[in-house]
Amino acid sequence: MKKRLTEKISGSLMQEDAPMAKFTSFRAGGCADLLVQPQNIKELQDVLQVLQEEGCPHMVLGNGSNVLVKDGGYRGVIVKLGSGFDHVTVEGNVIRCGSGALLSAVAKAAADAGLTGMECLSGIPGSIGGAVFMNAGAYGGEIKDVLRKVSVISQDGAHLSELDTGSLDLGYRHSILQQTGDIVLEAEFMLQPGNETEIKEKMAELKARRNEKQPVNYPSAGSFFKRPEGYFAGKLVQDADLKGVSVGGAEVSQLHSGFLINKGGATATDIIQLMRIVQAAVMERFGVMLEPEVRIIGEE
Ligand SMILES: Cc1cc2nc3c(=O)[nH]c(=O)nc-3n(C[C@H](O)[C@H](O)[C@H](O)COP(=O)(O)OP(=O)(O)OC[C@H]3O[C@@H](n4cnc5c(N)ncnc54)[C@H](O)[C@@H]3O)c2cc1C
């Protein structure tokens, strides 16, 4: 298969036994059999078609800020979108960007153009593709509020199509992409004219709030658990007296109990064991099952 892939994409854009700790914000976990970085839509399409014909499992990776790869690694191919997916253009009130562009870069481009609507998303450390997949959100706003449409390619590389916001079924940390496996190529956002200085002040204020309330100096994947209906995950964890509880190098953050952090040298197994301890304790105390928001993949 690797030989077939080298006919489609430069060998320098492929890495065998790729350490996923390097590509994910938890800085933990095993290796992927192969990581490929297509630089444009044509290369991505070619790669997906080869993987489909070979029956090879694969997963697209954005900025790796919501993925944990188990220590046994990922048996298959991780497709990380290359620099050809990073473009951002502003035209009037509309922003078009590649799915590999970071939310922070898109929000900055919006602010520079005096467009409001993305301030609340600007501190989320994900790519546009990952943010649409997760319907990422913060401080009362989510991608859904500003997204107009996306272009996608099917998992097998066979079909290109456009989906408007309505057909993405965006809900709390959910999009239809989690069922279809379609890969986002580009996204279009509709914003409103605003005051550049005020927009930048708002972004700075939200950044300061994050730095104060979240353990930003430690590797993590943000809030580890989804918000259960009627509760806040972090509050449940705190009320179950789990703040500071650790397994190996993994710890329930002292600063924000919704975060599991890598204090240094954590393995994915440490993190997953800690997750289970937290889930069991919260279930016992409050009868609530905490579901991970983080996508956990790979082998034990
Ligand atoms: C410090 C910190 C703070 C965070 N704060 C927030 C927050 O406030 N709000 C919030 O919602 N999240 C937050 N997160 C979580 C994370 O940043 C978001 O979920 C983000 O949207 C993930 O984007 P990503 O590019 O890193 O995706 P990845 O982690 O790379 O991937 C996540 C999922 O998206 C899929 N995916 C990635 N790219 C594509 C694509 N092009 N097409 C289709 N599927 C794709 C992957 O296959 C995977 O299943 C935080 C994380 C950290 C580390």
Automatic annotation (TrEMBL):
Principal location listed in the UniProt entry: cytoplasm
GO CC list: cytosol
Active site per the UniProt annotation: 173, 223 (proton donor), 293
Substrates-to-products reaction catalysed: UDP-N-acetyl-alpha-D-muramate + NADP(+) = UDP-N-acetyl-3-O-(1-carboxyvinyl)-alpha-D-glucosamine + NADPH + H(+)
Keywords: Cell cycle, Cell division, Cell shape, Cell wall biogenesis/degradation, Cytoplasm, FAD, Flavoprotein, NADP, Oxidoreductase, Peptidoglycan synthesis
EC primary class: oxidoreductase
InterPro entries: FAD-bd_PCMH, FAD-bd_PCMH-like_sf, FAD-bd_PCMH_sub1, FAD-bd_PCMH_sub2, MurB, MurB_C, MurB_C_sf, Oxid_FAD_bind_N
Biological process terms in GO annotation: cell division; cell wall organization; peptidoglycan biosynthetic process; regulation of cell shape
Source organism superkingdom: Bacteria
Localization, UniProt: Cytoplasm
EC number: 1.3.1.98
Cofactor(s) needed by this chain: FAD
Example of a GO MF term: FAD binding
Role summary: Cell wall formation.
Similarity field: Belongs to the MurB family.
Protein name as it appears in the record: UDP-N-acetylenolpyruvoylglucosamine reductase
Record organism: Lentihominibacter faecis
Lineage of producing organism: Bacteria, Bacillati, Bacillota, Clostridia, Peptostreptococcales
Gene coding for it: murB
